[in-house]
Amino acid sequence: MSAPVSFAPWQRRIYDQAASSLDAGRLGHGLLFCGPAQLGKRAVAERLAQRVLCQQRGADGEPCGTCRSCHLIAAGTHPDYQVVSFVMNKEGTRLRTEIVIEQIRRLSEQMALTPQYGGAQVVIIDPADAINTAACNALLKTLEEPVPGRYLWLVSAHPARLPATIRSRCQRLEFRLPPQAEASAWLNAQGHADAAAREALDAARGHPGLAHEWLKGEGLKLRREVAADLAKLGRGEASASEVAQRWCGDEDAALRLRHAADLALADAASLTDPVRARSLAAWFDQANRTRDLLRTTVRSDLAVIELLLAWRAGEAGRAQGGTRK
Ligand SMILES: [Zn+2]
């Protein structure tokens, strides 16, 4: 009997495709699971690993969930299965933000050994785009010398950040945003009411994983607050510094800027005035650049004030001349 697995339809499509390649003996040694974050790439890779390693697969080819291999995978102790991700720094004070060469060397050594269960060996690296340059070179060697039954799978939301030499040695499994009807139906199945699901999906530009997260948490409420702040700012009812202080006051600053950029874009699409539409597009870019600055050491609140002042100037210009549809 198969272990229960509840894939979204877009996950199911990729899984079925990879599973049939595996069963036909055509599955690549190196795979690159890529596509937007929060579409469940890692879960598909993990399930596929279980399918590779299970010792008594069902008639449908699915892993049994009860054999020794399946148990060890579930416990995270299967000797022929590794997931490489961020580890603690040397001081043990925080997680590293890179995957470093020692980790890649260890997995290469492991992959050179005979699998302990006599079957295959699977290594998943997630997020693969966090592998630093030195580690990439070491990884490339492993990818260049494929051994039958040894699988090295990379998971990445930003595959363009990987060196072309690595990408070219991997078979690509590309996750895409699903059609809107499928995304809505999935959100409904997660327990979200129709109207809220539609609003969230709209705000997330069709990304069901993001919409789901925003519906579970504060994401949509935050978006409404950002819209209200921008409107007040435009009418001169709030100052840029006061709004900036609120936006930068907690860990949601990046999400607020993302919403602000999206709202500007949506606004631009509803305008007939080409001058204001262009200025909104420029503001969209500025908002995204400001969001990138949040990750650096720059005084991000100053950049946010500048952004908000630009918003107010643009809105003042619109009040004088622009017309709306
Ligand atoms: Zn099994």
UniProtKB/TrEMBL annotation:
<dbReference type="InterPro" id="IPR004622">
    <property type="entry name" value="DNA_pol_HolB"/>
</dbReference>
<keyword id="KW-0239">DNA-directed DNA polymerase</keyword>
<dbReference type="InterPro" id="IPR050238">
    <property type="entry name" value="DNA_Rep/Repair_Clamp_Loader"/>
</dbReference>
<protein>
    <recommendedName>
        <fullName>DNA-directed DNA polymerase</fullName>
        <ecNumber>2.7.7.7</ecNumber>
    </recommendedName>
</protein>
<keyword id="KW-0548">Nucleotidyltransferase</keyword>
<dbReference type="GO" id="GO:0003887">
    <property type="term" value="F:DNA-directed DNA polymerase activity"/>
</dbReference>
<dbReference type="Pfam" id="PF13177">
    <property type="entry name" value="DNA_pol3_delta2"/>
</dbReference>
<keyword id="KW-0808">Transferase</keyword>
<dbReference type="InterPro" id="IPR027417">
    <property type="entry name" value="P-loop_NTPase"/>
</dbReference>
